[in-house]
Design brief:
The chain is an alpha/beta fold. 39% of the residues lie in helices and 17% in strands.
């Protein structure tokens, strides 16, 4: 929550995070399957109830937040979410519906089935990004190959995949020709931020929001809240 608060203070209106589910089906903001990296404990998030998990603290002394808390704390914030497990899909959907937050959520996952289920549960208002197959077809279109690209509102991708450049000028052009936004993760270097903005990407996910704001301000592209 402290990291989200920092981004909001900087003026960001959109954030990105990951969701796990507890043993009793509660959606929590957490990336890893286990607590090892963040708390030093070996347990899996999926093996703990929310009551148990709520008592744990990270090495920095932070509590692990509920997805509900994120929605409640910043009711105007746009949130990009990645479900990290099959169990987290239902838990995420319940939380999103409770908050009436579908219109300010975008989802994407490596597992296509997770995104498909969220779309079925939350309806056509939900923003979503395809998994590998959809991205690959758009990438081929970026090289002017005659492929049929399915419809999706945005595509969320790394700059490279297994050493192969994904986000090229042609890729962005092919996306924009189809009304698809291009969101790129995770971009922490200034030179790479500039390169991607120069070729027209629509969003960057970064662990260095202060630096990204500086880059956007210098380019006259900062439109955050003040």
């Amino acid at each position: 929550m402290a990291a989200f608060a920092h981004a909001v203070r900087l003026g960001y209106t959109h954030i990105e995070t990951d969701i796990q589910a507890t043993k009793d089906g509660v959606a929590v903001v957490f990336h890893d399957d286990t607590l090892e990296r963040m708390t030093g404990e070996p347990e899996r998030v999926a093996d703990l109830t929310w009551d148990e998990l709520s008592k744990r603290r990270t090495k920095g002394g932070e509590a692990i937040p509920l997805l509900d808390e994120l929605f409640e704390e910043w009711p105007g914030l746009y949130v990009n979410l990645e479900p990290k497990s099959a169990a987290s899909v239902d838990a995420m959907a319940h939380s999103i519906r409770r908050a009436g937050a579908t219109a300010r959520v975008c989802v994407g996952a490596f597992e296509e089935a997770y995104t498909q289920k969220l779309r079925a549960l939350l309806g056509p208002e939900l923003c979503w990004s395809p998994a590998h197959a959809g991205v690959f077809k758009l990438w081929l279109a970026g090289w002017h190959l005659p492929v049929e690209v399915p419809e999706f509102p945005c595509v969320q991708v790394p700059t490279h995949f297994r050493g192969i450049p994904v986000v090229t000028r042609g890729f962005v052009k092919a996306a924009h020709a189809r009304g698809v936004q291009v969101h790129v993760w995770t971009v922490d270097g200034e030179a790479e931020m500039v390169r991607l903005l120069d070729i027209g990407v629509d969003a960057l996910m970064t662990d260095r929001p202060g630096l990204l704001r500086q880059v956007l301000e210098r380019r006259g592209q900062w439109h955050g809240a003040e």
